[in-house]
Amino acid sequence: MLTQYLTEQNLLFPERVDGWRDAIERVSAPLLADGAITREYVDAMLTSIAGGGTYIDLGYQIALAHARPESGVVRTGLSAMWVRPAVLLNDEAAHPITLFVCMAAADSTEHLAAMAQLGSLLSDDAARESLLAATDPAAALAVLTAGEH
User: In angstroms, what CA-CA distances link 34 with 38, 39, 48, 77, 89?
Assistant: First the structure.
């Protein structure tokens, strides 16, 4: 399911990111550009994080940015962005992030399926480390594809 949504076009490796707000804007850009989400969805994520939403920190320097479907999800989509050096989520030293995943789920069934597959991948130490070490879309896709078998 992950590679159904995570394609080379929405696996991002920017040279520089200026803080967590910029990271959220950038990681959501592919979903906004292809119409999977509206601007309202990006704003809802920013508002949630600014209001103390560091719960999106999954550990291992990975954050799962998302908001409620009714906040602007048009159809299910995923995007991911690797940042180096780490960005402090909500400017908090306890939450350094090097991999931002943006998830837009059209309904709770798709949300749970995407979360389950992502959780399975991230709970595999070797797969998680390989994913975090990816330096380009091809390397990231190789890890994601291997995790689907």
Answer: 10, 12, 23, 9, 26
Please state the rounded mean pLDDT for residues 65-72: 92
**pLDDT at residue 148 is higher than 70:** no
State mean pLDDT over 22-43.
Answer: 97
| 20 neighbors 49 (Cβ within 8 angstroms) | yes
Could you give the CA distance from residue 59 to residue 122 in angstroms, rounded to a whole number? 10
pTM equals 0.92
**The pair of three-digit structure tokens given for residue 25, joined into one six-digit string:** 């804007």
Give 91-100 pLDDT, tens digit per residue: 999 999 999 9
Q: What does the alpha-carbon distance between residue 24 and residue 19 come to, in Å, rounded to a whole number?
A: 9
Q: List beta partners, residue 87.
A: 97
| 9-103-5-86 Cα dihedral, nearest 10 degrees | 40
